[in-house]
Amino acid sequence: MSFTESLIAKINQGDNKAFRALYGNDQAELKKQAERYTKLLQQFRTSFGENEAEIFTSPGRTEIGGNHTDHNYGRVLAGAVNLDNAAVATKNGTNTIRIESLGYPKFEVDLTSLKADKNEQFTSAALVRGICSRMKELGYNIGGFDACIDGGVPKGSGLSSSASFEVLIGAMLSVLFNQGRLDPIQNAIIGQYSENNYFGKPCGLMDQTACAMGGLITIDFKDPAKPVVKKVNFDFVATGFALVITDTGGNHADLNDEYASLPTDMKAVAAELGAKVLREVSLEQVLDVAPKIREKVGDRAILRAIHFQGDNQRVVDQVAALEKNDFKAFLSMVVDSGFSSYMYNQNIFPVNNIREQGVSLALAISELVLKGKGAWRVHGGGFAGTIQAFVPNDLLDKYVTTLEHVYGKDSCHKLFIRPQGAGKIEL
Q1: pLDDT tens readout for residues 298-318
Q2: Percentage of the chain lying above the pLDDT 70 cut
Q3: Fewer CB within a 10 Å sphere, N or C end of the chain?
Q4: b or e along 148-164 (b: 16 or more beta carbons within 10 Å of the residue's beta carbon)?
Q5: What 3 state SS string does 39-61 have?
């Protein structure tokens, strides 16, 4: 039996402990994942030959608490989800990384040069080069490897497909060349470094940290260079609720100014109080200075500062509720967070296109279906894209049918928080 066939046999049609931890207990889903990995292994053999290889996974992430708090050094609550990037990889004995992502052209990264290349900006190759550069600077080993990747985190879904890819590359380099000694938080920081300095996109650290760590975590960015990460021990599956992300569509291309206005407004209020970010001031200070600064910073900036203070504290309260197993109180705070984003943070629809309000409509429909029985809020950056809902299982079919009636088939993703972050799958 070849190495590939032996791995396929170990997968055993999805009936194995590792797959159940990653993808749940639904037999149809486990079979689907088994077929996915079988196809991936066969593609790896076709592309790179019959070699011994390792299987890897890296989850997407969902933001559960703390909407637009990280960029002002606040707190967040986030979880790794069962939609993931899967990969097969092995060392190739050269100084070149060769990657084939299913459905995309192959690309190579020559490690003889680790300098940022402007011609590579906004490409996967730039991310890989930046990760290798930073790992080498930090004293880790790097080298050439071959990999086939199946991207199961939908792009534009708000589940952080790019962060998942970054920490997947870090995990492969860790296992293949460093005996798996790369710490998950260090992996996340390296991924962020690459995205900022090689890919060319400024970003916080929440996405990479959640994808690298796995499970449900709360992150405190008071010192952004040394974020404090804490695992939250709570079993969402046991609640009888499903976590549903709905993609409402909408065009993100013209939203850069909208996204940029959020930290700009918040930091403008902080500056009036002699601070750099809102984490350094209190709600009482914001309200005290509000009459004096309304004309200078604008009322929206003050409202956004109120949102930050509320959602930053709400993360602490949400974690406390979950640790006390008070799921009802947690759901109530999810709804409160959603209303705060809508009324105060105002990141539900763009001000220059009031006719297109996909997120607003999805939230309204969610309230009609779930009021008193679940929770709903904007998910991630806002203005367009996704919403999040906690849906009781007895309303799940109705909720998905109602939302997909408006947004189309497969616009709803039924998720759960999974324990494993980016790393090797042990079959």
Answers
A1: 999 999 999 999 999 999 999
A2: 98
A3: N
A4: bbbbbbbeebbbbbbbb
A5: HHHHHHHHHHCCCCCEEEEEEEE
**Cβ contacts of 3 within 8 Å, gap of 6 or more:** 50, 51, 52, 53
| CA distances for 142 relative to 137, 179, 332, angstroms | 10, 12, 47
How many angstroms separate the CA atoms of 243 and 234, rounded?
14
How many domains is the chain partitioned into structurally? 2
Dist. CA 382–CA 368, nearest whole Å:
21
Q: Are residues 336 and 282 in the same domain?
A: yes
Its domain, for residue 81, covers 3-232+418-424
* pLDDT at 156 (0 to 100): 61
Residue 158, pLDDT above cutoff 70? no
CA proximity to 421, closest of 64, 32, 106, 78? 78
Return the number of other C-beta atoms located less than 10 Å from residue 16's C-beta: 17
Task: Looking at the structure, tell me whether residues 256 and 400 fall in a common domain.
Answer: yes
Task: Write down the pTM of the prediction.
Answer: 0.87
- Nearest alpha-carbon partner for 178 in 223, 119, 136: 136
* Residues 242 and 109 grouped into a single domain: no
Please, which pLDDT band fits residue 251 given cuts at 50, 70 and 90? low
**How far does Cα 262 stand from its chain's mean position?**
19
Burial class from Cβ neighbours inside 10 Å (0-12, 13-18, 19+) for residue 75 reads buried
- CATH code for the domain in which residue 331 is found: 3.30.70.890
Let me know whether 42 and 177 are in one domain. Answer: yes
Residues 275 and 210 in one domain: no
Name the H helices within 149-276: 161-178, 184-194, 206-213, 256-272
Closest CA to 260 of 71, 13, 112: 71
Q: Is 111 left (phi over 0), alpha (psi -120 to 50) or beta?
A: alpha
In a shared domain, residues 59 and 22: yes
DSSP-derived 3-state class of residue 34: helix
Amino acid letter for position 159: L
Residue 84's nearest CA partner among 159, 25, 180, 21 is 159
In the block, tokens 């324990």 appear at 419
Q: Judge whether residue 97 has pLDDT over 90.
A: yes
Q: Are residues 128 and 257 in the same domain?
A: no
Sign of CA dihedral 112, 114, 116, 119: positive
Residue 253 has pLDDT above 70, yes or no: no
- Please report, for the domain that includes residue 52, its CATH number: 3.30.230.10
Residue 115 shares a structural domain with residue 252: no
Residues 6+ apart with CB under 8 A from 352: 254
